[in-house]
C-alpha cells in the first residue's frame, strides 16, 4: 500500500523521531526511478525463513494507529509531540513583584504611632483628610518616601533588637560569673561535710565499741552472779580463811558493788507494786483563776531577744510552771535550763545518745521526761540534774512524751507505730497501744483524766483509754501526716496540724471538726494554746509563726525567724511567746 510522494526533509524528521534509518532499510522502503519514497507494510512471523534477527523498536509512548498509514498524519503527530516536549522543557519564570514604596502620609502616620504621639496623629489625620476632601491635596501627589528613610528605620529597628540581645547576653555573663564565684565556697563546704561524716562514722564506731564492752561486762557480771549462787555452799565452807587473808582488788570491789546494787534494785522492784490510775481526779480550780477576768487576747508580739542555745536545731521548749526558766531540747543530744531574763544557760543535761525530740514537766516542776531518737525515755531530777530512770522498749525513735496529771505515769509515742504507758513506781511498761498504721508523731494526756490523744502519720487522730489500752474513737479529716495535736486548757477543743500546713480544730465533746485553716504549703510543726485558750499559735516550716484568734477567726503572722520554726509556746500569763528554730536559737517575743 503506497502513500503520496513527500520530500526528503519530513522523512528525515520521521527517521530521527523513530530512531531508525528508513532509507537504509531495503525491506521496508523502495526508491523509484522518479525519486519518490514509498512505505510498505511488512509482517514478521515468529519463525522466519531467513536467518536475520529482527530487533523490536520501542514505541516510547509514540504509535501510529493500525490501518492509518497516512504519512501526513504521522508527521503532524510527530510535530505536535516535539512542540509539547519543547514547552515542558521551557522554564517558566514569573516576573518578580516589585516592592511598592511607602507613601509619605502612611510613613508619617506609622512614625507617629511608633513614637506614641497619639494627639499629634489625630491632628495630622484630621487636617490631612480635610485637605483631601477640599481637593487642596491629592492622595499620592506628594510621591513616595525615599528608600533611604525606610532603610534607616529598618536599620534602627535592627540596631535596637541587637542592643536588647546584647543586654541579655551581658546579664547572662554576669550571672555566670556570679555563680562561678560560689564554686570555691561550695567545694570547701563539701570537704567539710565529708570530714564531718568521717568524724561521725569514727564516733559511731567508738560508741559501738564502748557499748560492746559494757555488754561484755554486764554479761560477765550476770555469769558471776549465777556462778556465785550455784557455788555458794562450797565457797562458804572452804574458802573462808583465804578470803579473810586475801586483799580485794579494785575490779573485784566494783563487781561486788554492782552485784549488790542489782540485787537491791531487784528486791525493790519485787516490793513495789504497780501504780493505780486515779478514778476521781478534779482539775485545780486555781489553775483557771486567772481566766475569770480574761484580758484581751494579745497578737502584736514583737521580737525581743535572740539566744543561741544549741549547736543544732531546737526541737522542743517547755516553760517551768513555777520558775522563770525555760527547758530546751536540741538535736545535739542535750537539754538545757535557760534563764529567761538574760538567756544564760544554768544547766546542761547529758545522757541521750541521739537527738532529743520532746520534753515535758510534771505539775510540781521537779521532774522532767525527755524522748529521743535513741528509742528511750529518760526521767530527770531537775534539782540535782541527774537521770533517775530510763525506759527502754520502743524499737525505733521516740517522737513525743507526756506526763499524767497524777505524776505516776508517762506516755510515749514512737516511729514503730506504737504508744506506751510507763509506770514510774514499778519502772515498767504498763500498756502498749496498737492501732496506728504509721509513725505516731504526737501524744498527750487529756487534763486531769485517763484519756490519751495520739496523732499519726497515717493522717488520723485517736482517743484512747489509758486504763484498758483500747481506742475509743478515731478522727479523720487530715489529708497529710499529722505532726502535732494538743488540747486547749479547758479540754473541750483539740487542735492539730499536718505536714502541709493545714490546722484543724475539733470539738472534743461531739468528736466533730469545727474549722480547717490552711496556711501551707509549708508544714505545721507544732501547735499550742495560750493559757486562756483564746489564741492558737502554729510553728511553720516557712519561718513564720501563725496566731489564730479563735473568736474572730483572723490570722496574724509573726515574722523574724530566719529559719524553720520547730516549736512555739506561750508564757503562763500570755504576755510572752518563745520559739525555737532549726538554726539552734531561741527567740522571745513580747
TrEMBL record:
Pfam families: WD40 (PF00400). SMART domains: WD40. Keywords: Repeat, WD repeat. Residues 239-260 are annotated as: Disordered. WD repeats lie at residues 349-390, 391-432, 433-474, 475-509, 558-590. This is Sperm-associated antigen 16 protein isoform X2. The gene is SPAG16.
